[in-house]
């Protein structure tokens, strides 16, 4: 007798019955780029079909996303050059772009979960995630700015703050400050295992936030390491993170699996700008089938153990998964 695994692949119905992993819009977070001005929807050349939105048009995109079933968005601001400094002061301006965006969205779509990024880079003249002194990125001085930024985002109505800076001790510092100010319901989505990656290039184009000197390797992790990710995870969990994240996703599926197996918190994966751009670029050449590749790629992240996925493909996935395959 021959053992025949193909019996379980016989037709779409049996394949659906035995499928182990389901990609659903419920698990997606949609990152959005925002900018000043009115009636602006500006293309990002290295991220085809992604745009920077002024707040009026952002609201339309958020309503559209919510109607597609997307539960959460993450906001990333393009900051004017004349508002940048070494200390990221604009990042905690209560009337800054991010707090205004959060308030406007909360008014229009109160149910959607808003996640705000906590890091200095879009606000820094040096494009680094912390304060710079003599070519070094200062840790403890930067924590003070991250705390102020988080408080201003919480005051505006953010549901989660998401420190993406990789300074030591930031999750604990932010949690204590949020608690002391009474923001007990504001959560922390921690960029726990954030690697120093060339996959962030298109994102830095979108925000004009590329580092002006050096690289981010003194704070973002070395792509050769995985035990270090477990160490970062245990720190973030002890310091009070609600969700831990691995970033990038595709080249780090093993890290997603290790964090999933070793912790009880939800694990998020960030399908980053470079991963998005690679699919878009190959699809534009006609070299791959875009829709299939989006689903296959994001499903691999779920299979690796991701509970949530941040992806610029969120709206595409909502449409692609709304009817049976
Ligand atoms: C900022 C930040 C970055 C990304 C998210 N938050 C860029 C960086 O660290 O240089 C990258 C996201 C993407 O590439 O899609 N700290």
From TrEMBL:
A single GO BP annotation from the record? protoporphyrinogen IX biosynthetic process
Coiled-coil regions listed in the entry: none
Under which main EC class is this enzyme filed? lyase
Catalytic residue positions: 194 (schiff-base intermediate with substrate), 247 (schiff-base intermediate with substrate)
Record's Pfam families? ALAD (PF00490)
Query: What pathway does this protein act in?
Result: Porphyrin-containing compound metabolism; protoporphyrin-IX biosynthesis; coproporphyrinogen-III from 5-aminolevulinate: step 1/4
Q: Listed GO cellular component terms?
A: cytosol
The entry marks the following residues as binding Mg(2+), namely 232
The molecular function terms in GO held by this entry are:
porphobilinogen synthase activity; zinc ion binding
Q: Which UniProt keywords apply?
A: Heme biosynthesis, Lyase, Magnesium, Metal-binding, Porphyrin biosynthesis
PROSITE patterns the UniProt entry points to: D_ALA_DEHYDRATASE (PS00169)
InterPro entries in the record, alphabetically? ALAD, ALAD_AS, Aldolase_TIM
EC id: 4.2.1.24
Asked whether the UniProt record includes Chaperone among its keywords, one would answer: no
Q: Which reaction does it catalyse?
A: 2 5-aminolevulinate = porphobilinogen + 2 H2O + H(+)
Q: Does the keyword Magnesium apply?
A: yes
Q: Which PANTHER family match?
A: DELTA-AMINOLEVULINIC ACID DEHYDRATASE
Task: Give a short account of what the protein does.
Answer: Catalyzes an early step in the biosynthesis of tetrapyrroles. Binds two molecules of 5-aminolevulinate per subunit, each at a distinct site, and catalyzes their condensation to form porphobilinogen.
Q: Could you describe the subunit structure of this protein?
A: Homooctamer.
Family to which this protein belongs = Belongs to the ALAD family.
Q: What is this protein called?
A: Delta-aminolevulinic acid dehydratase
Recorded source organism is Microcystis aeruginosa (strain NIES-843 / IAM M-2473)
């Amino acid at each position: 007798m021959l053992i025949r695994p193909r019996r379980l692949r016989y037709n779409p119905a049996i394949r659906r019955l035995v499928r182990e992993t389901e990609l659903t819009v419920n698990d997606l977070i949609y990152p959005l780029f925002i900018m000043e001005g009115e009636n602006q929807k500006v293309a990002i050349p290295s991220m085809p079909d992604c745009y920077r939105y002024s707040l009026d048009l952002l609201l339309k995109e958020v309503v559209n996303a919510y109607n597609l079933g997307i539960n959460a968005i993450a906001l990333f601001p393009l900051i004017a050059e004349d508002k940048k400094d070494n200390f990221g002061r604009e990042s905690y301006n209560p009337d800054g772009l991010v707090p205004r965006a959060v308030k406007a969205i909360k008014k229009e779509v109160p149910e959607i979960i808003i996640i705000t990024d906590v890091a200095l880079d879009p606000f820094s003249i040096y494009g680094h995630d912390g304060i710079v002194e003599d070519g070094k990125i200062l840790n403890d001085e930067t924590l003070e700015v991250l705390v102020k930024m988080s408080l201003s985002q919480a005051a505006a109505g953010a549901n989660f703050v998401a420190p993406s800076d990789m300074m030591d001790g930031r999750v604990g510092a932010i949690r204590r400050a949020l608690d002391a100010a009474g923001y007990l319901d504001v959560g922390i989505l921690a960029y726990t295992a954030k690697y120093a990656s060339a996959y962030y290039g298109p994102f830095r184009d979108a925000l004009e936030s590329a580092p002006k000197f050096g690289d981010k390797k003194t704070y973002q992790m070395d792509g050769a390491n995985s035990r270090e990710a477990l160490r970062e995870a245990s720190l973030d969990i002890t310091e009070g993170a609600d969700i831990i994240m691995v970033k990038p996703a595709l080249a780090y599926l093993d890290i997603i699996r290790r964090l999933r197996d070793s912790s009880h918190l939800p694990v998020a994966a960030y399908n980053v700008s470079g991963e998005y751009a690679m699919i878009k670029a190959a699809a534009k050449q006609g070299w791959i089938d875009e829709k299939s590749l989006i689903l296959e790629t994001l499903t691999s992240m779920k299979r690796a153990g991701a509970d949530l996925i941040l992806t610029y493909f969120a709206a595409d996935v909502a449409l692609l998964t709304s009817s049976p395959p």
